[in-house]
Amino acid sequence: MTKQQANWSPYDNNGGSCVAIAGADYCVIAADTRMSTGYNILTREYSKICKLADKCVMASSGFQADVKALQKQLAARHLIYQHQHNKQMNCPAMAQLLSNTLYYKRFFPYYSFNVLGGLDNEGKGCVFTYDAVGSYEKVGYSSQGSGSTLIMPFLDNQLKSPSPLLLPVQDAVTPLVEAEAVNLVKTVFASASERDIYTGDKLEIVVVTADGIRREYMELRKD
Amino acid sequence: MFRNQYDTDVTTWSPAGRLFQVEYAMEAVKQGSAAIGLRSKTHIILGCVNKANSELSSHQKKIFKVDDHIGVAIAGLTADGRVLSRYMRNECINYSFTYESPLPVGRLVVQLADKAQVCTQRSWKRPNGVGLLVAGLDESGAHLYYNCPSGNYFEYQAFAIGSRSQAAKTYLERRFENFADSSRDDLVKDALMAIRETLQGETLKSSTCTVAVVGAGEPFHILDQETVQQMIDAFEIVGEQEGSAAAAGQEAAQPGAAVADQGGSTDEGVAPMDI
């Protein structure tokens, strides 16, 4: 008597890749805009990036229905925070909130692979990377999604993040200038689009600085 | 007001068909410091008098943002008001989470009123001792409602609640017919004039009052002290000169400190600002 298998899954993978890079006074968050299911494309123009607070932006790949639900939850919780504290949440606070929200559904997780980017209280760039159930870490850069296996090694190579085991302890923040970081992101996605079938169409880049949030687009391969 | 045989709990009627506990709750509203509201077709202004317990303490917060399109000013037991504001905020958040659109003001006030009514029909509860002026903008236009502890609610073009609110109401009654087409800045000036009526003698300064605005294209926000002081200065001087052009947002350069004689008399509101 073989074990009964599910004939239906509550999850689907809509593919796509996300990247975030932190700088001294900026943060770049980027994601492609392709939404797929199986070997089909659902749309070429879907944004995976969501502004959670003034200086805090999240990019998520995975199951976009869960991503949307997660974004709505965080937005509602942020409103409550603003009512109670009379100010916006800062990035580290939002990072913790996201982690808690994900773990809350530990036994029916949000199928959402997130990178959170923004400026911390001192105005320095920060990036937080997550797994589906809320385990998170502050890093200098990160990628998630279907192209992350292609993107991450390249970022490691370019951004030379020092091992935290080495002394003296060095900052995880990248010494790149904003323009260089944006270029790096464009290069990285162009390469990922070559080999990952789920990444392509268009690249959406969001840059968070003390002056505000700027958005930029770049065409990618459509095949 | 000797009616104590039937006023012990809210679930006892008097022979005249009154619920005294509810009426006493409305009395608590009248004891609170004044709050006023007025609206045009596109904007609603809320204002209140800042009352502090003593010179050493800060004043209580009486105007709360409920959502981008709704705000509330309270008079009476501030604690009850704070709790109700939290309820209103939650309702707005839940509604827009479910329907991806802002909660219509009329729906919110009905929910509030129903909540208040419950407290008038349970022996283990008491009515809220707070009156709420709910200002909101939705698809059907600009609205100003008054929710009272009894569970009743009314819609107004302009209203005032709290202590010495009658003076403000008299001023508003004289001028409310103009409000519908008033500009936003004229509306704020009228609000400040109405607040001044309730102060009856005390000088109107930005530290003694709070003003909030919500309107088309303008999410609910409380005006900062500087802006309010500039507007106070502008209209106090306009009043003195019998200025006709109620130029919107006209910030006068001269400080308002010199017009001490203005602040003294109560009936200064007769300034002929006929728009």
TrEMBL record, chain A:
Keywords assigned: Cytoplasm, Nucleus, Proteasome
One GO location term (cellular component): nucleus
Localization terms from the record: Cytoplasm; Nucleus
A Gene Ontology biological process term: proteolysis involved in protein catabolic process
Pfam families cross-referenced by the UniProt entry: Proteasome
PROSITE patterns for this protein: PROTEASOME_BETA_1, PROTEASOME_BETA_2
Family (UniProt): Belongs to the peptidase T1B family.
Protein task: Component of the proteasome, a multicatalytic proteinase complex which is characterized by its ability to cleave peptides with Arg, Phe, Tyr, Leu, and Glu adjacent to the leaving group at neutral or slightly basic pH. The proteasome has an ATP-dependent proteolytic activity. Non-catalytic component of the proteasome, a multicatalytic proteinase complex which is characterized by its ability to cleave peptides with Arg, Phe, Tyr, Leu, and Glu adjacent to the leaving group at neutral or slightly basic pH. The proteasome has an ATP-dependent proteolytic activity.
Subunit structure: Component of the 20S core complex of the 26S proteasome. The 26S proteasome is composed of a core protease (CP), known as the 20S proteasome, capped at one or both ends by the 19S regulatory particle (RP/PA700). The 20S proteasome core is composed of 28 subunits that are arranged in four stacked rings, resulting in a barrel-shaped structure. The two end rings are each formed by seven alpha subunits, and the two central rings are each formed by seven beta subunits. The catalytic chamber with the active sites is on the inside of the barrel.
Name used for this protein in its record: Proteasome subunit beta
Organism: Hibiscus syriacus (Rose of Sharon)
Taxonomic lineage: Eukaryota, Viridiplantae, Streptophyta, Embryophyta, Tracheophyta
From TrEMBL, chain B:
PROSITE patterns noted in UniProt: PROTEASOME_ALPHA_1 (PS00388), PROTEASOME_ALPHA_2 (PS51475)
The keyword Nucleus is assigned to this record: yes
SMART domains assigned: Proteasome_A_N
TM helices/strands, residue ranges: none
Compartments it resides in: Cytoplasm; Nucleus
Domain Proteasome alpha-type subunits stretches: 6-28
Signal peptide: none
Alphabetic keyword roster: Cytoplasm, Nucleus, Proteasome
Record region (Disordered): 246-275
Quaternary structure, from the entry: The 20S proteasome core is composed of 28 subunits that are arranged in four stacked rings, resulting in a barrel-shaped structure. The two end rings are each formed by seven alpha subunits, and the two central rings are each formed by seven beta subunits.
Described function: The proteasome is a multicatalytic proteinase complex which is characterized by its ability to cleave peptides with Arg, Phe, Tyr, Leu, and Glu adjacent to the leaving group at neutral or slightly basic pH.
Protein known as: Proteasome subunit alpha type
Species the sequence originates in: Hibiscus syriacus
